[in-house]
Design goal:
By secondary structure, this protein is α/β, with parallel strands linked by helices. Helix content is 37%, strand content 17%. It is built from 14 helices and 15 strands. It has helices at 8-18, 51-54, 63-73, 88-99, 110-129, 150-154, 159-162, 180-186, 212-223, 275-278, 294-308, 311-328, 356-365, 388-402; strands spanning 30-34, 37-40, 45-48, 103-107, 137-141, 172-175, 191-196, 226-230, 254-257, 269-273, 335-340, 345-349, 368-369, 371-373, 377-380. The strands form three sheets. Strands 4-10-9-8-7-5-6 form a seven-stranded mixed β-sheet, with helices on both faces. Helix 3 (63-73) packs antiparallel against helix 11, helix 4 packs parallel to helix 11 and helix 12 (311-328) runs parallel beside helix 14 (388-402). The longest helix is centred in the N-terminal third of the chain and has 20 residues, at 110-129. It binds pyridoxal-5'-phosphate (PLP). Residues 53, 109-111, 114, 145-147, 197, 201, 230, 232-233, 258-259 line the site of pyridoxal-5'-phosphate. It comes from Actinokineospora cianjurensis. One of its GO terms (biological process) is L-proline biosynthetic process.
Length: 405
């Protein structure tokens, strides 16, 4: 009997047969990756122009991150929070110092960080602000994306994300993203928080109007409301600064972090922010078996060290300017609009052009991996270790697949 190596089709068939169909991936089966490049099971190489939705800001298998993980794997990986371990305090201190915050609540997935922030904001509203029990409101933005739990989809405005998952959690008011007046009108004496993505990633890399985030800060200050910034995708160097809020010189009361915090190695998320707000949590009130585990903390510490150099923020800023300049040259040549900030762009394909899906598949055939969001937007978010020549290659491929429309 001769062993026949499984093909791309075999692997896809396995996925289709045994894994739930809650995603529609491109037909590429990745077997290895390094830096900005991945290799499929056929040995074909692709430039990664998505970076795990910014979970891979430092590229695949960054040597410093892998070394930190391997080192920790040889020591201790899990204790649960029943006991102390020697990485937790260091991780929390270093992350707090990097972010200029007081306290850190470590969790795992991004959705858990958002859930945690919702719980904290509510508890703060009852215990500190004096909102009557069970009446706290949180203002969110339309077209938001904050994760997939039942409470989070309760305040999604995306029908696909919500349909058939009710009954929903009450206590949220959605108003148009970018509209300060709408937020002001929605604030009451029961408002605990405004929860906002400083740049909306899933919605298509939507940057709000200049001054919007500053105005939200002002409304929060005037009304004793918490500003909660979901920087899970926009934060940690993606937009050219540590936080996307930094572009407007705005500080949040709470930040939710995730994705790149785990260095592309494992899920690590956190809520960071004001000590008097995070301080409302007492033992037994909230937690997670894996939250703040030694392996996560060791990798998270290595991520903090990379960010502390400022090198990745700078790369995103400089290469981002180059990316946006190049993409903007395609406007009128198959591209209707380019949005974004730093090394992050939403490329709106012109009417009459290929669908986002078709464009992504055509890019894949040309060796660049990208993914659409909604029908007509390509989401570009390369690892921040990418070179300028590689950025040019990716843009060239985008130009080819959208050309002629
Ligand atoms: C990805 C994302 C989340 C959810 O993170 P998961 O790790 O997928 O649960 C929440 N908020 C924003 C802005 C995100 O981009």
């Amino acid at each position: 009997m001769t062993a026949v190596a499984p093909t791309t089709a075999d692997f896809i068939e396995l996925d289709e047969r045994w894994s739930t169909h809650n995603y529609h991936p491109l037909p590429v089966v990745i077997a290895e990756a390094e830096g900005a490049w991945v290799t499929d099971v056929r040995g074909q190489r692709y430039l990664d122009f998505l970076a795990g939705y910014s979970a891979l800001n430092f590229g695949h298998r960054h040597p410093a991150l892998v070394a930190a993980a391997v080192e920790q794997l040889g020591r201790v990986t899990l204790t649960s929070r029943a006991f102390h371990h020697d990485q937790l305090g260091l991780f929390c201190r270093e992350l707090a110092e990097l972010t200029g915050t007081d306290l850190v609540l470590p969790m795992n997935s991004g959705a858990e960080a958002v859930e945690s922030a919702v719980k904290i904001a509510r508890k703060w509203a009852y215990q500190v602000k004096g909102v009557p029990q069970d009446t706290a409101q949180i203002i969110v933005a339309g077209s938001n994306f904050h994760g997939r739990t039942t409470t989070i989809v309760s305040f999604s405005t995306d029908e696909v994300a919500r349909a058939d998952f009710g009954p929903f959690t009450p206590g949220f008011t959605a108003v148009k993203y970018g509209d300060v007046e709408a937020v002001a009108a929605a604030i009451t004496d029961r408002t605990a928080a405004i929860l906002v993505e400083p740049v909306q990633g899933e919605a298509g890399v939507v940057v709000p109007p200049a001054g919007y985030l500053r105005e939200l800060r002002r409304l929060c200050d005037e009304n004793n409301v918490l500003l909660v910034a979901d920087e899970i995708q926009s934060g940690l160097a993606r937009t050219g600064t540590l936080f996307a809020l930094d572009h407007e010189g705005v500080r949040a009361d709470l930040y939710t972090l995730g994705k790149a915090l785990g260095g592309g190695i494992l899920p690590v998320s956190a809520v960071v922010g004001r000590g008097d707000v995070l301080g409302v949590l007492k033992p037994g009130e909230h937690g997670s078996t894996f939250g703040g585990n030694p392996l996560a903390c060791a990798v998270g510490r290595a991520v903090v060290r990379l960010l502390a150099t400022g090198e990745y923020q700078e790369r995103s800023r400089v290469l981002g300017e180059h990316l946006h300049r190049s993409l903007n040259e395609l406007v009128g040549r198959g591209v209707a609009e380019v949005r974004g900030r730093g090394l992050w762009a939403g490329v709106e394909i012109a009417p009459g052009g290929p669908s986002g899906r078709a464009a992504s598949e055509a890019m894949m055939a040309r060796g660049v991996l990208c993914k659409e969001t909604h029908e007509t937007t390509l989401r570009v978010a390369p690892p921040l270790v990418i070179t300028e020549a590689e950025v040019d290659r990716g843009v060239e491929v985008i130009a080819e697949v959208v050309a002629g429309h």
